[in-house]
Amino acid sequence: xxxxxxxxxxxxxxxxxxxxxxxxxxxxxxxxxxxxxxxxxxxxxxxxxxxxxxxxxxxxxxxxxxxxxxxxxxxxxxxxxxxxxxxxxxxxxxxxxxxxxxxxxxxxxxxx
Amino acid sequence: xxxxxxxxxxxxxxxxxxxxxxxxxxxxxxxxxxxxxxxxxxxxxxxxxxxxxxxxxxxxxxxxxxxxxxxxxxxxxxxxxxxxxxxxxxxxxxxxxxxxxxxxxxxxxxxxx
Lengths: 112, 113
Description:
The complex is a heterodimer. By secondary structure, chain A is mainly beta. In chain A, 0% of the residues lie in helices and 55% in strands. In chain A, strand 4 and strand 5 (43-49) form a beta hairpin. The mean pLDDT of chain A is 89. In chain B, strands 2, 4, 5, 6, 9, 10 and 11 form a seven-stranded mixed β-sheet that branches. In chain B, strands 1-3-8-7 form a four-stranded antiparallel β-sheet, with no helix packed on it. In chain B, a hairpin with a 5-residue loop joins strand 4 (31-37) and strand 5. Chain B starts with a strand and ends with a strand.
């Protein structure tokens, strides 16, 4: 089964700093999804990457997909306290859209 | 309007009891899911239904029985609750031929004492 490894597991940054979260897959990526979870809430979809080299942005969050490396990175520029939460990457297994496997998440804390 | 709603949000019960969690989506999606998030925040799929038909069952104990009366509802019934069942259970939905964008409910935190 596909496994997604996220790094770092947790991250504490000062407001205004940039940061990067990585997600590496044990198998070929057919699509990579980034979600954000705030404490006590469900997951919020951020963006989806499907093609190698693809890069997408959502406000100050940018994600890239390196298909050859089976890896995606999420970059936050000029972090704000509102960016705090758990970031999870998810990938479809074997090209199926029905089953999304998630990484263990990266807990981001942004200190004002 | 809440897109995916789950009830109850919190559930505290004794070992051995039977409990249910309900989920409803008003997005018109064909596919619904149940995910379990354990104490380490690891989110793992349990079941998936497409148009009321079970399409994914991830080696979940038989004590867990999902039921989909129609494509807008997916309920989760748990028999003989065990301590290890304590977790947050998330319901989600997506379009049948969608892009993998799942819409999640806010979760139901189950605590088994």
